[in-house]
Amino acid sequence: MATTQKRALVLFAHGARDPRWAEPFKRLQGIVQAQSPELTVSLAFLELMSPRLPELVPELVSAGVDDVTIVPVFLGQGGHVLRDLPLIIDELKTTYPALSFKIAGAVGEDPQVLNAMATYCVSAIA
Question: What would the pLDDT profile of 25-56 be if each residue is shown by its tens digit?
């Protein structure tokens, strides 16, 4: 008998003191959810905003999620993505050993994202 995994996609952002900072990330979450209605699409933060990733994961587990892909919504693979995020995931794996985690590269490292940003930048002078 085949088992069906319930998958979640977590958009992982830094966080800021000003709540307005999160608005584009919330819009991104809505767009991704609309494009992939079969997924649970959530937003989590490293610091300064809620939910932080360790706060979100128990909610996902309660909802029956068993496969989590985390997309760092950062421009580059800096210390938060290369050091802080793996440490958080290691702790979560200890607490939730049955949960599968995958970490994607930072969104800003993707050539399509960079090309979209370049197009936007050039359009700013028009």
Answer: 999 999 999 999 999 999 999 999 999 999 99
Find all residues with CB under 8 Å of 97, minimum gap 6, and list them. Answer: none
Q: Provide the residue count of the chain.
A: 126
CB atoms within 10 A of CB 32: 16
Q: How far apart are the first and last CA of the chain?
A: 58
* 56-80: b (≥16 Cβ within 10 Å) or e: bbeebbeeebbebebbbbbeeeeeb
Provide CB contacts within 8 A for 110, sequence distance 6+. none
pLDDT for res 3: 55
Q: Cα torsion for 37, 109, 65, 54, to the nearest 10°?
A: -130
Give domain 7-123's CATH number out of 3.30.70.660, 3.40.50.1400, 3.40.1010.20, 3.40.50.720. 3.40.50.1400
**In Å, what is the CA distance from 71 to each residue of 50, 101, 106?**
17, 11, 7
